[in-house]
Write a structure and sequence with these properties.
Monomer. The protein is built from 14 helices and 17 strands. It has about 450 residues and is α+β, with helices and mostly antiparallel strands. The strands form four sheets. It has a seven-stranded antiparallel β-sheet with strand order 6-7-11-12-10-9-8. A five-stranded antiparallel β-sheet has the order 1-2-3-5-4. A three-stranded antiparallel β-sheet has the order 13-16-17. β16 and β17 form a beta hairpin. It binds adenosine-5'-diphosphate and the ligand O=P(O)(O)O[C@H]1O[C@H](CO)[C@@H](O[C@H]2O[C@H](CO)[C@@H](O)[C@H](O)[C@H]2O)[C@H](O)[C@H]1O.
Length: about 450
């Protein structure tokens, strides 16, 4: 295998054509997968099991696939099978702790292997010999935890050139930010960042899990209001607002900020209308709200004094924030998974992140009542939870930055733009949930 991995892995092309579209991180959903080609493949470990690092082009997009090869496939790896390589089984190696465990060691060594460079961040001494644990969560990328120390994200769709997640983490870490996890190493190859290791925050809980636990508490209590139940989230929402505002302030200080003029505003509006055009074609149910959404977008033209822009998170929601014992931490600064790389690096209004988080409070509240038998009282109480936490988030934000609610027209337009994005995201990935952003559009438009 080590001598000619490209040749060997190329024979998996047909299997990859079936396997790739079934993966959560595969982006070309909604399009037929016609063209699959193994671009590069290098051996990272020989023997049985063997590990091959491959870059696969599918319909013109590049994907990173780590392929494990074993003569016998144990039961726990059977769900991750890709196909056969001669007599051996090929499978997604990111689920194999045995094969993953060597990756941080390669970084610690500063290894150069088949065109891949593994580097610790300057000044970081990485621990080696740690056990690897795939996190098993279905995400845009694939992450593996090493001991209780590091988490390595393997970018499934590597972007040629600079990597926004890495660059913004480095900038914030250099600025002394307490609201991000320390970057500890990167893997680069083929002109792209392929992997990014950070300190693993083992004491953390995801914002989505903590917020939805609070909603569940509320719904379990027959008559109480959100402020009266033990699991009230408003204090956390407020602290989260302050943390997000602090990240915005640090990004503006280190990377600069600007104000967009009328031409810049037109181009941003055109983007929002374009996205709406695209989503309307894919999800006809959106059509009844089209006029109202377009009017809310165009109301942004009435905003006086220009719109401040800077680098922001770009895809902020409750799944992108972790509550640690020291406070809230923001993760995953890649930007919206569906946006083109050149769009993701643009500076934007920080209110975009605020809008993303406000949408997320709506999701957290409503996903627990959506889908079941309609229950008006539960819906009203969930909506009360969302309103309370949306307000608390803005109040917390205002303790560090300006109060987002003072920019009502912008916030409304950005929330609607985000909800339009979510309609497509849900339609493609979780059709049962498409009602959540659609209901929000109906309410707001
Ligand atoms: N530094 C960290 N410490 C602890 N858990 C983390 C850390 N970074 C990410 N995670 C966990 O890994 C998951 C995936 O990370 P994320 O960067 O959002 O990847 P993706 O791009 O695949 O969405 C998160 O939802 C979170 O649960
Ligand atoms: O975390 P990702 O970068 O993969 O973001 C994508 O997936 C998110 C879902 O995991 C999606 O978020 C939407 O659902 C969340 C609940 O699961 C909710 O909190 C968010 O507000 C909502 O947007 C996100 O949009 C998508 O880009």
């Amino acid at each position: 295998m080590s001598t000619r991995p490209l040749h060997a892995v190329a024979s998996l092309t047909d299997d990859l054509r079936t396997w790739l579209p079934a993966q959560r991180w595969f982006a070309a959903k909604g399009r037929d997968l016609t063209d699959v080609r193994v671009e590069r493949a290098v051996g990272l470990a020989d023997g049985d099991p063997a590990l091959v690092h491959a870059l696969v082009e599918a319909n013109g997009e590049l994907y990173q696939v780590l392929i494990g090869v074993r003569a016998e496939l144990p039961d726990h790896l059977a769900p991750f099978a890709i196909g056969q390589l001669g007599e051996s089984h090929a499978y997604d190696a990111t689920h194999d702790p045995e094969l993953m465990s060597g990756l941080i060691d390669l970084m610690a060594k500063g290894a150069d292997l088949g065109g891949l460079s593994w580097r610790a961040e300057p000044g970081v001494e990485l621990l080696t010999g740690l056990r690897a644990r795939p996190i098993g969560v279905e995400q845009s990328n694939t992450s593996v935890v090493f001991g209780y120390h590091y988490i390595l994200k393997l970018f499934r769709r590597p972007v040629l050139g600079a990597n926004r997640d890495v660059d913004l983490h480095r900038a914030l870490w250099a600025a002394g930010s307490k609201q991000i996890a320390q970057p500890v190493g990167v893997v680069e190859g083929a002109g792209a960042v392929l992997g990014f290791a950070q300190r693993f925050l083992g004491d953390s809980a995801e914002g989505w899990a903590t917020a939805t636990a609070s909603v569940r508490d509320l719904l379990a209590e027959g008559d109480l209001h959100a402020r009266e139940v033990g699991g009230d989230f408003a204090g956390e929402a407020s602290r989260l607002g302050a943390a997000v505002a602090q990240v915005h302030a640090d990004l503006a200080t280190t990377l600069g900020s600007d104000v967009i003029d009328a031409a810049g505003m037109e181009s941003s509006l055109a983007q929002m209308h374009r996205r709406l055009d695209e989503v309307l074609l894919e999800v006809p149910a959106l059509a009844e709200h089209e006029a109202a959404v377009r009017a809310a977008f165009d109301a942004v033209r009435g905003v006086s004094g220009g719109i401040p822009v800077q680098h922001v998170h770009g895809d902020l929601h409750l799944g992108q924030v972790l509550r640690t014992t020291a406070g809230w931490v923001l993760i995953d600064f890649e930007g919206e998974p569906a946006a083109a790389p050149e769009e993701r690096v643009l500076t934007r209004s920080p209110l975009r992140d605020v809008a993303g988080m406000l949408r997320s409070f709506d999701y957290a509240a409503l996903h627990l009542v959506a889908g079941g038998e309609p229950d008006h009282q539960q819906e009203v109480r969930a909506a009360e939870w969302a309103d309370r936490n949306r307000a608390a988030f803005c109040e917390g934000y205002a303790t560090v930055g300006g109060d987002p609610r003072e920019h009502a027209a912008l916030l409304r337009a950005f929330e609607l733009d985000k909800a339009v994005y979510e309609v497509r995201y849900e339609h493609r990935n979780r059709p049962d949930w498409v009602a959540i952003p659609l209901a929000a559009i109906k309410r707001a438009a």
